[in-house]
Predict the structure of TerD family protein.
Amino acid sequence: MAINLEKGQRISLEKNGAGLSDVSMGLGWGRRKRKGLLRTTEVDVDLDASCLLFDEQRELQDQVWFRQLTSRCGSIRHTGDDRAGGGGGENERIDLQLDQVPANIVALVFTVNSFLNDSFSGIPSAFCRLVDRRSGEEIARYDISLDGGDHTGLVVAVIDRQEGQWRMRAVGDKGYGRTFKDMMPLISASLP
């Protein structure tokens, strides 16, 4: 059964005594409702998921996002940009082979940004979830619609490596910017 993460909560990525190696971070969201004079319509929402790879010196070494779908090492892959939202499931997904992440990478930071600079207020059913790709089991879910707010970016979670084992922490820090590049000070502050 999945853990519903709250801001600051930490979980281990160990399962039955072994570390999970093949996981995905999925991002899903609904379309915003716009009320007109005669009817309500749905409006596209362009959210973007990113994964940033940091080394022990807290230096950004690589990034995976809609402009670079695969990390240089090949261990992290983005499934592609969804510019509309809706559908009820994952709209974007980042697949990770944790056992293939280079040894010098100690933290993976996941962000979500509104590329059109629309606020997160009123975006329905927005969530991130970590899934064991081998079993299909949802490990953890972080509901990002609960907070609402006028922010346009969010540092969602950090997966970091401690003594050879990966763990995940829900961050939930709100920021502003169309891409992760606009939020680098906030991202840096979230590093372990």
Remarks:
- DSSP finds one helix and 16 strands in the chain.
- The longest strand covers residues 165-175.
- The mean pLDDT is 91.
